[in-house]
Amino acid sequence: MASVLSDPAKARAKAQAVHSYLTQELQLNIGRKAASVETFAAFMGMMRSCNPLHPRPKAQKQLPVICPLVQRFPEVLTGKLTWYKDVAVALSDVVDFGGAALDASKMWRMMVWIWLGNGGNLHQAWNILKEFPCVKEYKADDLRQPLEVIRFVIHAVKHCGNLMKVIGSDGLDKKSRLAAKRILYLVEWHKAVPLLVQTFHEGAGSFEATLLGLPGLRGDLTRKEILILFAASRHQKLSAVGKPSLPFGQGAKNGAKAFLAIPQMDGRCATHHYHKHLTKMIPEMESAMSRLFPALKATGDHTLTMGDIEPCLCAASVFASLVGTLRKQCPHRVARHRVAGNADKVWEALDGMRGPAGFYAYTREGKPASGPAEVNVPRVSYKRLCLAEVPPRSFLNKKAMFGSRWHVGTVRKRQRTR
What we know:
Blueprint: H1 8-25, H2 37-50, H3 57-61, H4 68-72, H5 85-95, H6 104-115, H7 124-129, H8 133-136, H9 144-160, H10 185-202, H11 204-212, H12 220-231, H13 236-242, H14 250-260, H15 270-292, H16 294-299, H17 306-329, H18 343-350, H19 382-385, H20 398-401
């Protein structure tokens, strides 16, 4: 989780770093004010125009210079919510899976997806679990389902040697998924599925109130991960619940302060505060993007949603740090305004650059760079994973669950009736 950006000087420095990079290295024709709607719109439009994973050839041709940082980190510098890989997979496998209906099985899949940290590192854990009976179809009162998911993750963590090689996302809550006091949160989420479905159908306010009452779902970051996925749905019945109550994470709040001069706010009124300010700015942002990138307007890629803006505000703060790193690592003789003519030297610096957690690097040729992001979550058959019955309460604690009796394939089984 990002710390609160309370220093005005640091906020100005972030905005200035992004603005100077856009105007000098990338030679975009924008005004002199660093913290402005135009600068932020230029940042989002630039990402949409030159992202190699989502090519927009006409928009790219209109760029004076193609941004090497976006080409290096195209999975996270997207400029569009539905272009994030985590979001795209969640939409196809969870939110829009089976159509617009929201039933207990879809809600349970959402809970597993979120507990794994947006499907797990590189979605490997999700791709193994998603077809298992414990995930595919919700069974009320069958607590073997969440316990089997937890069992699989414990087994995978022991195999991989590190929790974050299995669990995905970079939120601090993900790093404590298997902590002694939190290891059974997924069991509580499983019990709450019927209530979550009921309140979802009652509307955004009721659904958010239910999330706020569940352990591990109360924080802005985790609620945002759930609501932003529903907001991204192509089905209006689902998106209508996610959009109105989409909270802003601390990274987005910092970005709103640095790049749009929106005052920081926490607490119950924070969501309304950010929605109110940003809703007023969206028309100006879209107008600026259309002027700077007319090819995006021709394809409809100039439009913005609150779901697009929230992660981009966070990305802009990270981007400012990446700009500083690139400038330090580039040879001194490579003038800022000559990036295009010194692509070889720029990529020499980029080849050694790693972004923050979750920033998967790509090569100059547009291929994923090999490195520590590559993991090997073990595949197991459901026969070896399933439990015959819920273990006694005395066994359901971290010490026992990490013991040898909890290893996949070692718990005595009998034929299941589901």
